From TrEMBL:
UniProt biased composition (Basic and acidic residues): 216-234
Descriptive protein name: Putative flagellar biosynthesis protein
Transmembrane segments: 29-50, 83-104, 186-206
Gene3D superfamilies found in the cross-reference section: 6.10.250.2080, secretion proteins EscU
Length: 363
């Protein structure tokens, strides 16, 4: 059936879908990659924060000894600036990861159409279908898998740490904090790697589902091709108008020709020669009715017509309107122009004349 959506979406359809925000992407990829990046950047951020805090605490005795409000405000300002500089690398990393994750899943584009209110979005039926359809089944399965995997990661990470924490009374506070810090970072990193693997699977499922939704019927593909390339009937009409305009332009130039080569009735080529602009140019040409019109205009404007069957056919076939004649025709056309000049000298140039040196063949 022509209504079945069996065809892959065209480039135009995909472009429109991106513009409307209909892109197959998983939000989990950016979240898990961001968490992994944070686990790598966090120790450095905390280390920098601790160093700045230590510097501030060293200034506290001076404030107590000399409680000047200006000095206290200056230290507070330095503390806030230090905290900002300490957190800045982490914030920039998270932002870069978010942008990269979005770009890797189909580019970054603001779907402005999503901000336009649509009453169809208030229809509860699509939402109910999603809750009861295959998408809901996948979301539920994904939640169960995610919970199971994270529980397994938590168990594998903590099984060696718990016995150590049970004997934490024997450890120094610094050593205990180091153990806890390493355990937390290991847990975050392991969970992030597992989450990225699950998010990659989710991405492929979402991408496949979105591509399926964007599939087109053969009729839609034909219609889009017609809209993109243009209706053949309309294109034909435009082409016909363009050809008519071109004919009108070349007919307007016929009265300025120096000579019209004819064949003797089926072909006509009008030539104009201006020594300052180079070789003679074809300013009008045609066969049949167009040739007849050129001859009529030449008669009305007393333009000499010279019968040379081979030369007229060769020029009509090989030279476009507005172009100079090729070098191989220079000698032959020069003889025709010389013949026309001799007719003008005698005052009998108008009308049709036979070329006294007809061209037997033109390469």
């Amino acid at each position: 059936m022509s209504g079945e959506k069996t065809e892959q979406p065209t480039a135009q359809k995909l472009k429109k879908a991106k513009k409307e925000g209909q892109i197959g992407r998983s939000q989990d990829i950016g979240a898990w990659v961001g968490m992994l990046a944070a686990s790598i950047m966090l120790p450095r951020t905390l280390g920098a924060a601790m160093d700045h805090s230590r510097e501030l605490m060293e200034k506290v005795p001076d404030i107590i000894a000399d409680p000047d409000p200006q000095v206290a405000l200056g230290i507070l300002k330095d503390g806030m600036m230090s905290a900002g500089w300490a957190v800045l690398p982490l914030a920039l990393t998270m932002m870069a990861v978010g942008i990269a994750a979005a770009g890797a899943q189909g580019g970054i584009r603001v779907a402005t159409k999503l901000f336009i209110p649509k009453f169809s979005r208030l229809n509860p039926l699509p939402g109910i279908k999603k809750m009861l359809g295959p998408q809901a089944l996948w979301e539920g399965s994904k939640a169960l898998i995610k919970t199971g995997v994270l529980a397994g990661v938590l168990y594998m990470t903590m099984k060696d740490i718990v016995p150590l924490l049970m004997t934490a009374g024997r450890l120094q506070v610094v050593s205990l904090l180091g153990v806890i810090n390493d355990a937390v970072l290991s847990l975050i990193r392991a969970a992030s790697v597992a989450g990225i693997v699950m998010a990659a699977a989710d991405y492929f499922v979402v991408r496949r589902r979105t591509n399926k939704q964007l599939r087109m019927s053969k009729e839609e593909v034909k219609q889009e091709h017609k809209n993109t390339e243009g209706d053949p009937h309309v294109k034909g009409q435009i082409r016909a108008r363009q050809m008519a305009m071109a004919r009108n332009r070349q007919m307007a130039d016929v009265p300025t020709a120096d000579v019209v080569l004819v064949n003797p009735t089926h072909v006509a080529v009008a030539l104009r020669y201006d020594p300052e602009k180079g070789a003679p140019r074809v300013i009008a040409k045609g066969q049949g009715a167009i040739a007849q019109k050129i001859r009529e205009l030449a008669t009305e404007n007393r333009i000499p017509m010279v019968q040379d069957k081979a030369l007229a056919r060769a020029l009509e076939k090989s030279v476009e309107v507005g172009m100079e004649i090729p070098a191989e025709f220079y000698g032959t056309v020069a003889k025709v122009l010389a013949f026309v000049m001799s007719l003008k000298t005698k005052g009998s140039a108008a009308g049709v004349h036979r070329n006294p040196n007809p061209t037997p063949a033109v390469a």
